[in-house]
Design brief:
Aminopeptidase; Glucose Oxidase, domain 1; 2 domains; 3-stranded mixed beta sheet; 29% helix
Length: 549
């Protein structure tokens, strides 16, 4: 669900893959050959697509751990591997979600009319005759003086919610962030806030344009096995039922209740919007789950700082991909070369380069698991942190770096978020590059990769990708390259390593990142979220709490 923005001869692939060797001929510089080598190994068929829990996943974790060890990067804890407990739940065929209208029950069709699941780890979850309430966009945002739940007790009720946020709907740059989606527009936030409000269930109304994807994506993504974290409370703080419904079903519900959905959507664009009860319609649901538990791991290493070892600069990427699909004819290995062997190669090469110098602050290198299952590895680290998150000064995330070659530009996903962009701008000016804001901010890509797990806790994290403006061929050539990858190779078995890849642009990106890291690691600066950012208040509160403690 994330967007990808996207020779040297390669070192010969060694038979003993677990043994990490590096070209250290220029210890302080990013080495393109090392990047090639890491990607070639991690994206090989022998690693089987790096699915968590698979033999290839185990090889991946060991490869990263051994690489850290070879570089004298210490384990964050006693072991490089940090357990991430997971739970797999599959809604069985006897499950259902129904609307009760005028005492008549109508079961919605799973897939074509609705998709539903639960984050509560229980063999059976039910909802009985829950009143439906339209809560607009389902947003509580103090920085925008916005509260869609004002004046209502949601206990036992079902929240019916619009996707995205009022800014996108109006294209008013003075309302939220206009065309650019905020976190309040993401479906994940809708469920989280409804749970905080005490709701029993949530129905999100799907519309293709504000969701940024058609119903088919919803239909395929949220049916079948769902993987989540095994949390201490076994998900009991979540709503009983999380669901989407199609727009035609939503319109039917409102029409039968003698309400005008189009008119209510307009009302939901105002600060003074009040929740609207949907009379004569109730929700009934019974979800029967098949449950399996498993353990995956994040891989974490640190280079301790000399004077402020308790303060950290984070560099992260996810190590997992989609694995091997049994029963698929032909090539059934989803090698994940771009997504995200590139990112892991990047943090390993940063670890090699930065390990050569001493820094005042500590450097934290983090390879997270289960990104493809919903950013679960990063979420677990953020929810059950082995270090104080308030001590993470800033972070950098690498996810799906296209081998597009050298470019004049750098794309900042979620542009306009934090002062890390000021530091980036300074470094780019030194080498004659320029920043391009996320060209599709309405799609909310900033909220679809692992950095968001930390941002939600207040930690500023930069997600910057190599650009489109190629030195050889310009913007047109860059866009053609990126579009071809997205159309033909993204999340396909064909996302494979090519020894002819030009990783020169990636070298530039990592060099710039290394310079930014060294700057922050040897200063007393704490980058802030920009004024008006949805995570600014969270960060300020966490730092204040840390100071008081």
């Amino acid at each position: 669900m994330k967007k990808i923005y996207l020779s040297l001869l390669v070192l010969i692939f060694l038979g003993c893959e677990e043994k990490s060797t590096y070209d250290n001929s220029s210890i302080n510089k990013i080495n393109e050959g090392n990047l090639h080598r890491h990607i070639q190994i991690l994206a090989s068929d022998e690693y089987g697509g790096r699915a968590p829990g698979s033999p290839g996943g185990e090889k991946t974790k060991q490869y990263i751990s051994q690489s850290f060890k070879d570089l004298s990067i210490e384990a964050l804890d006693k072991n490089y591997l940090i357990e991430v407990p997971l739970v797999e739940m599959t809604v069985t065929k006897e499950s259902y979600l129904s609307l009760i209208e005028n005492n008549k029950e109508r079961r919605l069709k799973q897939g074509s009319e609705t998709v539903y699941w639960t984050k509560r780890v229980s063999e059976k979850v039910s909802v009985k005759n829950s009143d439906l309430v339209f809560v607009g966009y389902g947003i509580v945002a103090p920085e925008y003086q916005w509260n869609d739940y004002k004046g209502i007790d949601m206990k036992g009720k079902t929240a019916v919610i619009l996707i995205n946020d009022p800014g996108f709907a109006t294209q008013d740059s003075n309302l939220f962030k206009g065309n650019a989606m905020t976190y309040y527009g993401r479906w994940t936030y809708k469920y989280e806030e409804a749970a905080r409000q005490g709701a029993e269930a949530v129905l999100i109304i799907h519309e293709t344009k504000p969701a940024a994807y058609p119903w088919q994506v919803v239909e395929t993504s949220w049916q079948g096995k769902q993987i989540d974290l095994k949390r201490d409370d076994m998900g009991q703080n979540k709503v009983n039922v999380e669901a989407w419904i199609t727009y035609p079903i939503a319109k039917e519900i409102f029409t039968n209740a003698k309400l005008d959905l189009v008119e209510l959507k307009q009302q939901a664009l105002q600060k003074d919007f009040q929740p609207v009860a949907i009379p004569g319609v109730k929700l009934k649901a019974s979800l029967v789950n098949q449950i399996n538990f498993s353990i995956s791991h994040n891989v974490a290493g640190i280079k301790k700082g000399t004077t402020h070892p308790e303060e950290f600069i984070l560099m992260m990427a996810h190590w997992d991909h989609l694995g091997t699909k049994e029963g698929l004819s032909g090539d059934n290995i989803y090698n994940g070369a771009v997504d995200n062997a590139t990112g892991i190669a990047g943090i390993l090469e940063l670890a090699r380069t930065l390990s050569a110098s001493e820094n005042q602050r500590s450097l934290l290198f983090l390879a997270v698991t289960a990104e493809e299952s919903g950013l679960l590895g990063s979420a677990y680290f953020a929810e059950y942190p082995p270090i104080e998150l308030s001590n993470i000064v800033a972070g950098y995330n690498f996810d799906g770096v296209l081998p597009v070659g050298k470019t004049k530009d750098v794309i900042v996903v979620g542009h306009g978020a934090s002062e890390l962009e000021d530091i980036l701008q300074r470094e780019l000016e030194k080498v004659g590059k320029y920043i391009v804001p996320d060209p599709m901010p309405e799609k909310g890509f900033f909220y679809r990769s692992d950095h968001i797990s930390f941002a939600k806790k207040g930690v500023p994290v930069l997600y910057a990708d190599g650009g489109f403006d190629k030195l050889d061929g310009g913007k047109k050539a860059g866009r053609i390259f990126a579009e071809e990858y997205t159309a033909k190779h993204y999340h396909q078995p064909s996302d494979e390593y090519d020894p002819n890849w030009d990783l020169g642009g990636f070298v530039d990106q990592l060099t710039i990142t290394a310079n930014m890291v060294k700057y922050l690691a040897n200063s007393d600066r704490w980058p802030k979220w920009y004024e008006g950012n949805e995570f600014k208040e969270i960060r300020e509160k966490s730092l204040e709490k840390a100071i008081n403690n």
